[in-house]
Amino acid sequence: MRGEARRLLFQALHDGAEAGVFALDDVILTGTAIAAIGMRVAAWFGPDQPYTREQVADHHARLALRMLGVTPKDEP
Q1: Are residues 13 and 30 in contact, defined by beta-carbon separation less than 8 angstroms?
Q2: What pLDDT score was predicted for residue 2?
Q3: Around 75, how many Cα atoms within 13 Å sit in the side-chain half-sphere?
Q4: Which of 7, 25, 31, 59 has the most CB atoms within 10 Å of its CB?
């Protein structure tokens, strides 16, 4: 399952870069960094944190978009 998720992520990044939607230097390195962000959440997030699941998910999504050279719509 992890391998399939990795393949899908890299394919989406490749396709987005080819279509001119994403501006990234390296699909593998950028994809690995984005995947690592998601994996690390499980190591620190819990009920003792001052964030909701939605806040964490939204923040990480904005970080990933920035890594891809995309400015999220809710930012200037």
Answers
A1: yes
A2: 84
A3: 11
A4: 31
